[in-house]
Amino acid sequence: MTPPAPTARDRVAAIVELLRGRGERITTARRALVDALAAADDHCTADALAAEVQRAHPQVHKATIYRNLDALRRLGVVEHTHLGHGPAVYHLADEPHDHLVCDACGSVQQVPASLLRGVERAVKRDYGFEMRPRHFALGGLCGRCAAPGAQPGEAPSSSRARSGSPPKAGQ
Question: Using CA atoms, how far apart are residues 145 and 53, in angstroms rounded to an integer?
Fold first, then answer.
């Protein structure tokens, strides 16, 4: 049986403990940013995170939020990903995953980080190059847009496109 997914509170507590263990300060801005990332239903832009933090803590300057995002990224707590032509999006690094983005409809599917491990090993072995596949999304066509007779470009009607769960047979 798979253990239940950690709650937002559990994730924040683990991150705070990790940061304190490394001698990092837990400021109001940093804690609010980690809270916002843990509570988010999806990946967030820096501007969306700044707005969320400032809703709860209006005294926190936007530049402080950007500096904290960068610091948390350097510390391995936060990852940012480029999903296409828009701004980078951020998410906590405690649940590693990669991203597939449909070039036609723009849907984003999260896939397990293990999906590209064979490619990472082959690139390292053959070229001496260490990939960072979580930095950029892989583009292509989702199953819906690639299906025969599909009208590519229509946005997906369900959140399943972001879940990382493969469609069930017949869907």
Answer: 37
